[in-house]
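My main concern about presentation is that the manuscript never shows what a single data entry looks like. For the editor and my fellow referees, an illustration may be useful. For illustration, here is how one protein appears when written out as sequence plus structure tokens:

***
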Amino acid sequence: MSNLYNENDSSAEETGDVKILIKGGDKLSPGTNNVYAFCNHCKKDISVVYIKSEANGKELAVTETLKTNWPAVFEGRFPENDYEKCKKNNDYESCKKLLDEKKKSDKIHELWVSFLDSCTLHGFHFCFSGNPPVRRIIWTLLLLGAFALFFEKCTDSIINYFQFPFTTTTLIVYENSLVFPAVSICNYNDARFSKMNGTTVHELYFRTKIKGENVSHLLREISGEEMTKTLSEAAHRLDEMILECKWQKDSKCDHRNFTEFKNADGDVCFTFNSGKNSSALLTSSTGEDKGLRLLIDVQHYDYYFAVESAGFKVILHDQDETPVKMQGLAVSPGFTTYMELKKRKITNLPSPYRTKCGMPKLRFFDKYSKSKCFLDKLTRYVVRICKCRAWFMPGAKVGIPVCDMETSQRCMWPAWVHFEDKKLDECPVACESVEFSAQLSYARYPANAFADYLLSKETNLTGTPEENRQYLRDNLLELRIYYESLTFSDVRQVPSYDLYSLLDWLFWWGKRKTKMSNVLNENDSSAEETGDVKILIKGGDKLSPGTNNVYAFCNHCKKDISVVYIKSETNGKELAVTETLKTTWPAVFEGRFPESDYEKCKKNNDYESCKKLLDKKKNSEKIHELWVSFLNWCTLHGFHFCFSGNPPVRRVIWTLLLLGAFALFLEKCTDSIINYFQFPFTTTTLIIYEKSLAFPAVTICNYNDARLSKMNGTAVHNLYVTKMIKGGNSSHLKNNISGKEMTDILSNAAHRLDEMILECIWQKDSKCDHRNFAEFKNADGDVCFTFNSGKNSPALLTSSIGEDKGLRLLIDLQHYDYYFDVESAGFKVILHDQEETPVKMQGLAVSPGFTTYMELKKRKITNLPSPYRTNCGMPKLRFFDKYSKSKCFLDKLTRYVVEICKCRDWFMPGADEGIPVCDFETSEECMWPAWVHFEDKKLDKCPVACESVEFSAQLSYARYPANAYADLLLSKRKNLTGTPTENRQYLRDNLLELRIYYESLTYSDVRQVPSYDLYSLLGDVGGQIGLFLGASLLTLVEYLDFLAMVLFTKYKYHKE
């Protein structure tokens, strides 16, 4: 605190008494002879303030009760107060009590006034005295209304917070490579009939289930060990079932690449890529040739008679998961099943969020998953009830015995049923998991010609050719598993209303200006206008002897003052003195004030030195004044409490609070800045409802690319038979096949669309034919045809849904004319945008003998360019006008092959530029190896398109043609001479019906949106400043402004 008396006056410090005379004169109202003085800013709390009458010079001690309000003048004198009464009555105790009570009351009032001055609640100080009544009422009503809204919103916010809501975000992540899933296969038959026949277990099952006999004596004869041994020996052996295993087309695998496990239904299953004996496989390419291919013999002929369905259950799962429950995808013999993989990574929230995910420790497994938890709890329950376990359950390592047949029937199986019925498998959802799904499509396997090729190697089949083909289709299945794209969905549950969101509602961060106090007569208009103040401080016995002149100051005047006057008691002369001397009292030396540098230069009449001293002091005082003003106006909460003018404890507490707040603020700001430079984004999906939608381009590709009838007798056919079938030397044949001849042969051998399209109907009534299709060649060299390509006419629109409001095709795939190296029979159907060229075979397989229903779903995708992780782009291509990733692949492949071999494959673009087609020898020695090297070295680095349209379909099937309709069709065909059954089978081997339509007139607009841009960063930083420091970004500007003013002041006074 400042003071108005000599700091070395010990008596003043001890008693707190101050004697002051304020000069009246022209600055006071006429008729005012006596003026009360006060000392709000004295160094110590004062008990008594003395005033002195100018009229008679009498000093009078007056209580502080009069210091804040000037008493009203009544008949030329001040009214008598309680203190004067008790003094007049010489009642010392009453006077002392009055003074003590008033001192306490005034101290509380002083704290209240100080709080009003520093309170940061907007408008709060306007509600109290010192403001006009109307203003007080308005601000009181405004604040009450604001508080009512505040408490309402706070209540809603707190309720919302304790409901622990969350949102689920889905992010499409593009990767250069993906981990291939573990692939578990389980035969529907768990025990071979040939191995079960003659065993006690078989006899028990046959006599109880088939004959219905009571064979309780057999139950007691079958121990747990015998049942385990019987079922283990009767299980299918993988080395007998796996006929072929290929990884990414070229790498061979076999049964040794699988690990065995038993699922919760007691079946023996096998897992490829389990990650147990080696690290999980990675794939960096898409398409059916870049995944896993399995040819499996299901051994249908050896199925046990209790098994209803024939085939395999395929379970796609993460390497850390054990698929103990049969929840996979069914695959049937007689088909090639294509599985286009989609990966999804899921992150759930633990309690108190509704998901309540968890990863509790399990007894029989090292790592947690919900399926493992099910088997773990089931095993523990069965062991607790029955003191034994089923033969497939874990527990062998801890010595838990297997239940015998009697205990299994009497206890274990009923306990299992009770366990599932009562939902005792209460396992929490895993907090982190990886899931795989697949789009399934089918083609007939094996194709007739390929079946004959396989049968030529089999010598133990004695049936007719058709019976032998059927035997293969009853027992063989082909499985192709691959990624459709190198992307996965990152699905995360994110708290939508966390603690920081709640705090944003609970705190209103306001800024306010501090009202300045004043110590001059408010009726002194001239003082307000000029800022000049004339003050004389009485010396007397309270100041050191010899002190005649005392410098005055007015730090807390209403306006910034320009000049302070002092008046000498000796000669009454007023003298204007610079403010430089206003804050510090000179030290006492030998009973007088020491001679200062200023007095020395004045005594020596050295005007320049005096001016320099005064200017230097004025500069210093101006900076100090700026600092004091900055403290009063600074909007950083609590900052002014950290400096002098406050008790030490208060300064320490506020300093620690501000340092802690700064630490939290810097931590959160660092996190925000790091998050910003990771350039995160979210994927938003909007369902758009339209009155009509553009129908996709529909591309169909026959699995057979060359008809046997057209290839037979050609040089290419002779070369293939000599080299691939007979294994002879074919070098002389290679040299005779030029690129032009090979192109002519393959083009002539390709299926003709006008022969394959038997019916084409658009929206039930409009007929179409082969002329509505455009031809192109894909990257596998197949001749394909596109309906609604948009090249010769605008893309078709559909405004209705349902199978009658789309495209219907009846196709003869000419199965009878397949080349003998083609394994599967059917078509690949690719649904794509008109701007896209589907150069890679990644469509959906359709098989003859079925009506395939395709319910369309359209998706429009917008990706983000660099620096976001997707890094999309649309570079210019050499051979195509518009960009797509598949066009980019073919463009780069063609350029690479041409650069290496100086020629191209017959289906590649470049004919317009005169690039020749490679002859057969160049193809074998250069072009095909260059192609393999191109794919192996990942030279097709094409960015994801920034904008694209994708189509997917839900497939379902019906047998085609029905028997009666088959007979109707056969009545129109006179060239078939087989039996009715054989002719029906001929139709089912060659005909397929395709129905493509929208399931609804909607599409998904999938957009990548920056989730944390520059404005988010600024908002986050601003929020952290407001939350922890009660400031804003403009507070930083205040500090910069203060620094600029200091530098400007230094420069200004230095220049002057």
Observations:
- The longest helix spans residues 133-162.
